Amino acid sequence: MFLYGLLTIALAAIPSVLSQAIEYNAAHNVTPIIGTWSSGSKQVVTGKFANPSNLSFNYPPTTGVCFSFADNGWYEVARYRFNSNGSQPQCITGVLNWHHGQYQLLDNGSIVLIPNGDGYQQIQDPCAAESNFIENYNDTELYSHWQIFMDQNDGPKLHIFNFDGSPVSPLFQIYNPPNMLPTTQLRNVTPSIDTGSSLLAMNNAGARSWSSPADVMALLSGVFAIGVASLLL
Ligand SMILES: *[C@@H]1O[C@H](CO)[C@@H](O)[C@H](O)[C@H]1NC(C)=O
Ligand SMILES: *[C@@H]1O[C@H](CO)[C@@H](O)[C@H](O)[C@H]1NC(C)=O
Ligand SMILES: *[C@@H]1O[C@H](CO)[C@@H](O)[C@H](O)[C@H]1NC(C)=O
Ligand SMILES: *[C@@H]1O[C@H](CO)[C@@H](O)[C@H](O)[C@H]1NC(C)=O
Question: Which pLDDT belongs to residue 28?
């Protein structure tokens, strides 16, 4: 459970067609989904967001989310965001999340993202016992449906909806073909034991229920603290 922040609150006001099988027609999907799609100021970009070989990130100047879909069945996701906590406003959690793997466009209009196992995320939570760490991220994500419209100013605009119907920020096509890291395994990860508890854990990047200390790599970096501080200014 987490809040998505002000942008998503604003977007929640946008009417959306929910829980309805998508029609792959020109009215709703003006272009194929192949390409790189980035939200807001388009500063979060797959292909240059993460360095899997050393588990680091190239911090974008602003928060956002980016999805890439390639015609070989691979996707890549990059997310950078701050989650606020209404009951503890001083406890803003920062999340950088990266993963790639195989995507499936289901007949009922949903998208399933199946990570390759080499994804990871960095979480800073100033109020937690361990305030800044990196952990593996390998959760299968389900998106209930998607649509592509033509924006008069920005061109093709992709709307993706989370499994619960809430919208992801509108995504603008910034590259086609997509800008992605190599679509192969990019670091060695020891497979974790599947507890079977979350077959489709879905979009829980940044959730507070992160896993066992064994998965967690402590991190010595002040960059995130700076990011949170600037958000508060
Ligand atoms: C907010 O903080 C409280 C107290 O630490 C915690 O129980 C709750 O899960 C947090 N909510 C979110 C959305 O993170
Ligand atoms: C990680 O690797 C990238 C790309 O090779 C490099 O640019 C960056 O400086 C490295 N970061 C750290 C913290 O080693
Ligand atoms: C589409 O099918 C998948 C797999 O059966 C299911 O998990 C998902 O909830 C379905 N999507 C919708 C919008 O019903
Ligand atoms: C990632 O999850 C898949 C199941 O979705 C599993 O088969 C694979 O072993 C996991 N990889 C790692 C490195 O844990």
Answer: 64
Distance CA 91, CA 223 (A): 17
The encoded tokens of residue 27 equal 């009215």
Ligand 2, pocket residues at CB < 6 Å = 51, 53-54, 56
Model's pTM, two decimal places?
0.77
- How many C-beta atoms lie closer than 10 Å to residue 84's C-beta? 17
**Cα–Cα distance measured from residue 163 to residue 19, given in angstroms and rounded to the nearest whole number:** 9
Other CB atoms within 10 A of residue 154 CB: 12
pLDDT in tens, 40-59: 999 999 999 999 999 999 99
User: Three-state SS string across 9-31, please?
Assistant: HHHCCCCCCCCCCCCCCCCCECC
Ligand 1 neighbour 204 (Cβ under 6 A):
no
Q: How many residues does the chain have?
A: 233
